[in-house]
Each structure stands twice: as C-alpha cells, then as structure tokens.
C-alpha cells in the first residue's frame, strides 16, 4: 500500500476542507506575502517602521473589511477572513494587526452600529485604504477591565465634549479617524473622532521590542468637541466595544497559525541543514520530538480555527468559543516560536531567521485583545456559571 507524503505544515489536510473560493483567497494572499511582505519585514522590524507602502496593495486585494457586504467591500465569509489573517501573520503580526484593526475594530463597528451617513462616508474609503482607522478602548489604568474606563463625554447642545486618554492603540498616529469609546450619562458610546479635531492628539509609543513593524500609540482628548453626526447611534453599552473585540479575537485565532507555521518551516529547514556530531540534528530523537510537538500544536490550532469559522458563518458562534481558540492558538504559537528559536541555537537570536521576530511579536499578540488569563476566566465562567473576574 503506497503512502502519500503529507504537508509538514498541514498534517491533517485542512486545506481539503476549504471551498474553492476559500482556497483561492488563501493562495492569493500567500503569494502576496511571499512576494511583497516577507522581503521587507525584517528591515521594517529592525527600523521600527510600519511598511505603509503595502496599504494600497492590501486594499487592492480586497483585504480591508473583507467580511462586509457592499460599500466597496469584498463580502467574503468568515473562513476567508481567517485565512487572510493566517497568511498575513505568516509575514508579520504587525501587518495582520493593521488589517485586524481596520477591518474588525473600525469598519465593523461603523457597519454594525453606525448611521447610513457614517457608513457611506467611511466604509468605502477605508476599504480602499484611503482612510485609516484606529480603535480607542484600552486605557492606561484599565487594561483588562474596560468597565473601569475614565474617558468620558458630556452633551453640550448638539455636540459632545470628550475628555480622557487611551493607550496601546494600533494605527494611532496614522489614523484619519478613531473609534473612541467613552462613558456618558446615557451609557458607553462610540465616537468617531477625526484627525485634526481641536484637543485631539496622538503620540507614538517608541522603544517597543515587539510589533516593531506596527504603529502603536496613545490618544489624548482635551475638551474635544464631537458633533452628534459622529456618534455611533446603534449602541450605548459595553457590549458594543466587546463585540468588536470578539471580531478581532477571531482573526487573531487564525493569524497566529501563520506565525507558527513560519517558525516550524524555519526549524525544519535548519534542522535538516545543521550537522552536529556527524549527522543533521533532524536525525536525532530529541529534535524530532520537538518538531513533532510543533506540528501537533499547529494541527490542533488549525482545526479549532476552521471549526470556529464555520460556526461564525452559520451564525452560531459565541464569544466563549473565540476565547478558547484565542487562548489555545496564541499559547501554541508562542511556544512554537520559542522552541524554534532554541532549535536554531545561536542563529535563533539573529533576524536573518524568522523565529525571534515572531516570538517577540507573539508576546504582544498573546496579551492584546484579552490576556491569556482573561480568556481562561471566560471559559471558566462558562463551565461553572461563576464570574471569577477581579
């Protein structure tokens, strides 16, 4: 009985479960990442620069707001969006973060909670990459406790006056518009704060050792006057921003698989080329066990993500399932990146090889959009019915 060689990065042939359209999306983005992203990411990471010249190309492929119907958006399904995130993060978490924020944290709330005028103004421009957005929820003292937000807005005639600050905001200094969440006397509301509004300032956070190819900053609001036309009318509770985080976490659960695959691929190639004591290290039991464990983790993550995507497309996804996938897949990817870096020995700390860059990025990815502990407690609450937060 003959045997067919398996794909080391897809041992359970998850690819065969994809529709023709889903596979085409993945392959198109994979070619873009191979040809345009990977060649520039090492330098972008080293220089602490976002490769903004790629934004137009990303938009041209229909990757911004890809799940939205109409408004010049591609109208793809959830699995296709997941595959987009997977391939982009195989290049670098920074570029996937840009697409996640633009799609899940900015375009999604405008589409879900915005007025017809807000949708018409912002969504087509954002889909084309002509307008860039950021999402202001996290605060310096808040972190994992968004209910503790201090940013607030008060009515003043037909306008709102916004005060406060936000921290760790992707795209902060390059954004044309920020979706800012603030407490009001009428609940938690979302405001579209536009670049250039008096009292609004964005400052970049320097000296990061993670996500260096991504723009991260702080937002400050000093009596910013926001017209009523810039208030999202469709939500007035924390469920609004939390629903956006569910969308972003979904993409992350897929994205980190790409980073893990890049690290395993590098470790496999290195182990086959690196000769110690007269034989390649891939011929040793210890290295084979470690490579096999990486493949096991990737395979588990792939099936979790695919099932999650199918549930989302069927309208049956619940946030706890996203938490489980984000927790599992981020932990798997970070462990794989660390082990791949170790297998490479001294070469593992060099940017000539990808594991150390992915490892550093994943230290942020496992933290943002809910830390590992937060997602564990979300699952724990589901299992016990008891809220153990705080």
Give the topology, please:
Layout: H1 20-47, H2 55-60, H3 78-91, H4 93-113, H5 116-127, E1 133-136, E2 152-156, E3 159-170, E4 177-184, E5 187-194, E6 200-204, E7 216-227, H6 239-273, E8 275-276, E9 279-280, H7 285-313, H8 319-343, H9 355-365, H10 372-384
Parallel strand pairs: 1-4
Antiparallel strand pairs: 2-3, 3-7, 4-5, 6-7, 8-9
Helix pairs in contact: 1-3, 3-4, 3-6, 4-5, 4-6, 6-7, 6-8, 6-9, 7-8, 8-9, 8-10
Account of the 3D structure:
The chain has 390 residues and is an alpha+beta fold. It folds into three domains: 14-127, Butyryl-Coa Dehydrogenase, subunit A, domain 1, CATH 1.10.540.10; 133-230, Butyryl-CoA Dehydrogenase, subunit A, domain 2 (Beta Barrel), CATH 2.40.110.10; 239-384, Butyryl-CoA Dehydrogenase, subunit A, domain 3 (Up-down Bundle), CATH 1.20.140. It has ten helices and nine strands. It has helices at residues 20-47, 55-60, 78-91, 93-113, 116-127, 239-273, 285-313, 319-343, 355-365, 372-384; strands at residues 133-136, 152-156, 159-170, 177-184, 187-194, 200-204, 216-227, 275-276, 279-280. The strands form three sheets. It has a four-stranded antiparallel sheet with strand order 2-3-7-6, covered by helices on one side. α8 runs antiparallel to α9. The longest helix has 35 residues, at 239-273. The protein is globular. The N and C termini lie far apart (58 Å).
């Amino acid at each position: 009985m003959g045997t067919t060689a398996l794909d080391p990065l897809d041992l359970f042939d998850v690819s065969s479960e994809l529709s023709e359209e889903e596979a085409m999306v993945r392959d198109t983005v994979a070619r873009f990442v191979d040809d345009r992203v990977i060649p520039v990411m090492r330098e972008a990471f080293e220089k602490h620069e976002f490769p903004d010249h790629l934004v137009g190309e990303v938009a041209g492929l229909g990757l911004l707001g890809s799940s939205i119907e109409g408004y010049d958006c591609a109208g793809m399904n959830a699995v296709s969006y997941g595959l987009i995130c997977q391939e982009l993060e195989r290049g670098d978490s920074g570029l996937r973060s840009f697409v996640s924020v633009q799609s899940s944290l900015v375009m999604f709330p405008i589409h879900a909670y915005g007025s017809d005028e807000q949708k018409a103004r912002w969504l087509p421009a954002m889909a084309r990459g002509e307008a860039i957005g950021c999402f202001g929820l996290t605060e310096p003292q808040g972190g994992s406790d968004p209910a503790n937000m201090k940013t607030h807005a008060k009515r003043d005639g037909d306008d709102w006056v916004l005060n406060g600050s936000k921290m760790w905001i992707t795209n902060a200094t390059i954004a044309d518009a920020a979706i800012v969440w603030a407490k009001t006397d009428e609940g938690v509301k979302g405001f579209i704060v536009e670049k250039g509004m008096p009292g609004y300032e964005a400052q970049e956070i320097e000296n990061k050792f993670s996500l260096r190819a991504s723009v991260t900053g702080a937002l400050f609001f000093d009596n910013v006057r926001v017209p009523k036309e810039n208030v999202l009318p469709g939500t007035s509770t924390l469920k609004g921003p939390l629903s956006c985080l569910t969308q972003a976490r979904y993409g992350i659960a897929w994205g980190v698989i790409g980073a893990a695959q890049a690290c395993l691929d590098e470790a496999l190639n290195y182990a086959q080329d690196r000769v110690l004591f007269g034989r390649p290290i891939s011929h040793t039991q210890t290295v084979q066990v470690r490579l096999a464990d990486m493949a096991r983790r990737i395979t588990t993550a792939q099936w979790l993500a695919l099932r999650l995507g199918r549930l989302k497309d069927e309208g049956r996804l619940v946030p706890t399932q996203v938490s489980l996938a984000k927790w599992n897949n981020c932990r798997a990817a970070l462990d794989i990146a660390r082990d791949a870096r170790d297998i490479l020995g001294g070469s593992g700390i060099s940017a000539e090889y990808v594991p150390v860059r992915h490892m550093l990025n994943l230290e942020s990815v496992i933290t943002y959009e809910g830390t590992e502990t937060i997602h564990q407690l979300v699952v724990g609450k589901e299992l016990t019915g008891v809220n153990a937060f705080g």
